[in-house]
Every structure is written in structure tokens, then in C-alpha cells.
Specification:
By secondary structure, the chain is α+β, with helices and mostly antiparallel strands. Helix content is about 25%, strand content about 35%.
Length: about 140
């Protein structure tokens, strides 16, 4: 997987990474359903158990989450690109005092649009036997 400098990426990988980072900054951080069509293909395949299949369901999910958590924040920790797959690792907090959870999103792109998504979500524990940070 290439995550180093942009010189190590192909032009297609750079475009794919920029597209997914655009999604993160314009859709996921502000939970803005109105921007989904700019990034997500109409035939979008959703693998997340937290949202129903399809682009319209994603819009409804974002609107619901924004209504439930208007003070939420999403802080990007890492991004990786490998061909037509982009991976984001970020910390979500539902409100400022929330420990939150860690999300790893995997996106597959085709023709410059996101066509498929997988995710893994893990709560940030209050106490852990592992002293190494999740961040």
C-alpha cells in the first residue's frame, strides 16, 4: 500500500485519494448529505451494517446522524491508497466530551467515483490493558 509521498503514487491513485479526501472533508466531517452525489456512484454498494444499501440510504443515514449528533467531530488520522482502493482511519466523537470511536473506511473507486464501501468501527475504551494509543 502506498501512503508515502505523492511522488510514489500513480496519477490515478492521486486522483482517487483526492476524491475520497474530498468526500471526507465535504460529506463525512460536516455530515452533509447534499454533497453525496459528487462523490458516490448511483450504483454504490454498501457493506456497512450501520447503513442500508445504496446512495439514497447513505444520504438518509447522514441526515439522521447529523440530527442525533449536531456537535460531532471527525478527525482524520491516516489515509492510504492502493490502486482503486482508498483507506481512511479516523476518530469520531459524538460530542466534545465523548471518547468516541475509531473508524476505518475502505472505498473502491471506478471511473473517478466511489462504487463500494466497507468499514470497521471500534469504541475507544475508557480503560485498556494495552498502553499503546489507538491513534
Amino acid at each position: 500500500m502506498s501512503a508515502a509521498s505523492s511522488g510514489d503514487r500513480s496519477p490515478e491513485e492521486q486522483r482517487n485519494l483526492e476524491h475520497v479526501l474530498g468526500l471526507f472533508h465535504n460529506v463525512l466531517q460536516p455530515l452533509d448529505a447534499s454533497q453525496v452525489d459528487r462523490y458516490i456512484s448511483p450504483d454504490y454498494i454498501q457493506h456497512s451494517p450501520m447503513a442500508a444499501p445504496g446512495r439514497e440510504s447513505l444520504k438518509a443515514f447522514l441526515t439522521f446522524i447529523r440530527g442525533q449528533n449536531p456537535d460531532s467531530s471527525q478527525h482524520l488520522l491516516r489515509s492510504f491508497v492502493d490502486g482503486n482502493h482508498v483507506i481512511l482511519h479516523y476518530h469520531v466523537k459524538r460530542h466534545p466530551d465523548d471518547r468516541g470511536f475509531i473508524v476505518i473506511d475502505i472505498f473502491r473507486l471506478q471511473g473517478g467515483m466511489i462504487v463500494e464501501h466497507w468499514d470497521s468501527v471500534q469504541d475507544v475504551p475508557e480503560k485498556s490493558p494495552n498502553p499503546i494509543s489507538m491513534f
